[in-house]
Amino acid sequence: MTSFESAIAEGARIEPRDAMPEDYRATLIRQIAQHAHSEIIGMQPEGAWITRAPSLRRKAILLAKVQDEAGHGLYLYAAAETLGVARSELYDALLTGRQKYSSIFNYPTLTWADVGTIGWLVDGAAIVNQVPLCRCSYGPYARGMVRICKEESFHQRQGFESLLALSRGTPGQHAMAQDAVNRWWWPSLMMFGPPDADSPHSARSTAWGIKRFSNDTLRQRFVDMVVPQAEVLGLTLPDPDLRFDAERGSWDFGPVDFTELREVVAGNGPCNAERLAHRRAAEDDGAWVREAARVHAAKHAQRGAA
Amino acid sequence: MSSRFDARSRSVLGLADDALIASHRLSEWVARAPQLEEDIALANVALDLLGQARLLLAHAGQMQVPALNEDQLAYERPIEEFRNAVMLERPNGDFAATMARMLLFSAYQYQLYSALSGCADPELAAIAGKAVKEVEYHRDHAAGWVVRLGDGTEESHQRMQSGLDAEWPGFTRLFVDWIRDDVIAAGQAIFPPWLREPVVHWLEPVLERATLVRPEITQVREPGIREPGRNGAHTDDLIDILAQMREVRAAHPGASW
């Protein structure tokens, strides 16, 4: 047994300088990068509403949330860098489509209610996905996730509260909230990935202590968490098959359209092109700034050495 | 121009609106910054300014009978009641122009809030005492970029100089004497022309390290009471900002959020 295998068997943490199989390293880089990309692409759909937030308090909450997402992106890129890959390489992989980000951010945010709904459902799904990662086998990732999950749960409560204000507001606000929930419900369920039978990397990730629960288990956990919350909100979920199964102690739900998920992941969602174009434009527009900072630092290093 | 707000309220609204509109423009940078660290920094500065605006609006609102809250003042006040400086409503321009504006505005705010932290209005003094620590960070952050860009590549130097030149005329208008004498005499506001010298004194070494040419300092001699922005006369840029800020609320009259 290698030191890596015995560490995994004992449930110990793998740290950056420890020996690890190349596939373990590659899997983690792919997963952490995808997660980091999701944070920074995820700034776009909500960021677009900062200037339009309907009260100064909501504006401050949203601005702080989007700032947190940038911060999460930063920790995650830093965690990926401990595996020997540079942030610039990961950006390049994102912009050229070699690495993905969460399919959920390829849907448009059409109204203010989408902001609260994203907080409630999308951050809610992210938490269910991410809490187990706080105990994953790779140390820097696990530690980053502890902090991220704390902030995400704050975001989820704020999203819920914002949506509650809409649901209990005027008929127009209530209708806007219901419409947003109708549009985001199924894409949120898709955030857990393909069904277990079609999830090719799951078994190995589980054996390596990266993944702790299957996609379908986490999806069910999310549904069970959110259905009672929808009742408190006074909003319905757009699934006629939702019913409580007393025997299982869980909610049954209708079939998720995984064809849509495959299409969105393949780049054919409503906003894939727009999200990447926005990211690429920000990179291109900022190139002269980063170059200036590099040149300035080099001049100073020289002057300092002289 | 006549106003339903008295002179003291107008002086506080000037501070509040400066912070609110500057915050709005900075928040337009979110998810567009040249690097991720800068997305965080710009959002952070925007959030500080928004926090200042909220406290100042609440303070101004408390002076009214009946009292007005921050949202009534931000979302329902007619544009001609806005008292922000015109430089803050202009579109951002490139990153260099944005940093030039942040440098000039935060250097001004730093001296202003420092002076106000000892003023005769205890509430305003407390707000200023908290805000001065925030704007000190904004000023340092902007100075770092102005130096890096000014003393960076040929392109960045040129952009930085253009940005400074573009923001400078508006900056000189920050020191116009627009607040009524009795408010200043009562120690409830600071006479703006007093701030010019310490602000420029602080800026000089920064611009020198950045290898930038400091534009001419023009003495403003017109009576400040007719100062655009401060007198409620604004450009179409503020019309656009307020239209966007108020879009959601306008679609749902009477709703709470």
What would you say this structure looks like, in words?
The complex is a heterodimer of chains A (306) and B (257). Chain A is an all-alpha fold. Chain A is built from twelve helices and two strands, in the order αααααααααββααα. Chain A has helices at 3-10, 22-47, 56-81, 87-95, 113-130, 139-167, 171-190, 202-207, 215-233, 258-268, 272-285, 287-305; strands spanning 243-245, 250-252. In chain A, helix 2 (22-47) packs antiparallel against helix 3, helix 5 runs parallel beside helix 7 (171-190) and helix 5 runs antiparallel to helix 9 (215-233). Chain B has a single domain, classed as Ferritin, CATH 1.20.1260.10. In chain B, helix 4 packs across helix 8. The longest helix of chain B has 29 residues, at 122-150.
Question: Gap between N and C termini of chain A, in Å?
Answer: 53 Å
Q: What is the domain tally of chain B?
A: 1
How far is the first residue's CA from the last residue's CA of chain B?
33 Å
Structural class of chain A: mainly alpha
Condensed summary:
The complex is a heterodimer of chains A (306) and B (257). By secondary structure, chain A is an all-alpha fold.
Tag the structure with descriptive keywords.
heterodimer, A: 306 residues, mainly alpha, two-stranded antiparallel ribbon, 2% strand, B: 257 residues, Ferritin, 10 helices, 63% helix
